[in-house]
Amino acid sequence: MGIWQADFYRRPLRDATGQVLWELLICDATRHFTYQAWCAQSEVNANWLVAQLRQAAGDNWPDVIQVFRPQSLSLMEAAAQQLGIAVEPTRGTTTLKQWLQQRALQYPKQEGYTAEAYNPIAIDKPPPLPLPENLWGDRWRFASIPAGNIEEAFGDRPIPILEMPESLLPLNLGLASTVAVPGVIIDGGRKSMQLARWLQNVTPVSLNYIAGAPDGLILEAGLVDRWVVATFEDTEVATAARMYEQRQSLSQGLHFLLVQPDDSGMTYTGFWLLQTEN
């Protein structure tokens, strides 16, 4: 399946008439294929984008275009719909984000540079929302599992909702089998499947410990969504949370979220391999 990563958004540059310039960047995961085009802000629309996508594709059309920037999404969806291409909103456009950061170093050397504060991959995120009360299970806890045991423990189990992307498998990240991969286990009780389905719909990205008053666990999901999974003031839980954070730093940010009906370890409802964003 052919997959493109694309971004179409304004840059800290203006053309000779003073108009803000937008840039279209397209690449594949290896960056063997790339495409770049400039557009004055007054010309930004789906039709312009359709013409550029046709030019970029030639005879090699993608099946999917991945987009990480919410402000690019609606335009890309409108253009891709005309061409029969699926659009996937995802934060996982690592190659494109690296290219954007490299491009940003070139803008100050270009004519029309505005010198405004600019972060090429920054996304404004709303404050986190509390997890819907009707979804919350019986209890939760921090846990860990050796990296070498993850695929065996979960890969072949009949788990209704299982998200283990190839790119996040410990072997593909080069993690030693003995590295402790941290995670959070939620015993959902009778709400276990309802919670797992809700999680599947919001598309989990990472589950992060945030120190504060109180401390909390924040679920990053979708493109910009954030949810408060739990808050706590207990010192023992806070110590476990810091260990969870430390283990993430040793596992390249890899961690997991497991939803199960109870703590018997016999059945699982949902399992997600996650990775903290850089």
Automatic annotation (TrEMBL):
Domain RNA-binding protein Tab2/Atab2 C-terminal intervals: 119-275
GO MF term set: RNA binding
RNA-binding protein Tab2-like N-terminal domain: residues covered: 3-103
Name of the protein in its database record: DUF1092 family protein
Organism encoding this protein: Allocoleopsis franciscana PCC 7113
